[in-house]
Design brief:
With 144 residues, this protein is α+β, with helices and mostly antiparallel strands. The chain has helices at 10-20, 26-31, 114-118, 120-137; strands spanning 2-4, 40-45, 61-67, 70-77, 80-87, 92-96, 98-103, 106-110. A hairpin with a 2-residue loop joins strand 3 and strand 4.
Length: 144
Amino acid sequence: MILNTTYSNKKHDELINDLLGKPFSLWQSILMKGIGSKRMIIEEVSPNMAQYLNTASGVNYANLELRPVGVLVRINKGLENFTWVIPYYKLGIHKSNGSSIHAEGKFINFRPNTTFRENKAFFDKLLNEKVKYEAEYHTLPSFQ
């Protein structure tokens, strides 16, 4: 689900909190050594995401924010902001030339530049949170 979050909207905030949980508290954020990534350059997106990118300028940016049950991908398009809401059970992360985030038939591929390398610790934290979530909530079916 992608929401236009340029302006504060109480219904969008409630929806995000219902799907991914409330934001981590300041204390939790400090203990986790941060819950947000640095700004990364978007290299490529799936065709159904192209409408959320700048067409005039060649550089598009996004950053990520951890939530207890998922991640928010915040995309900047000129003066507009869009937020892609991804629960952990739908999240897929692929490491190839750069890194890409996949969910709901959409993907964003990030350029492997200096800021991307600075976010390596954040991606490790994201994977750890996803593993914790799956260990807690994912149960394999028993075959009897």
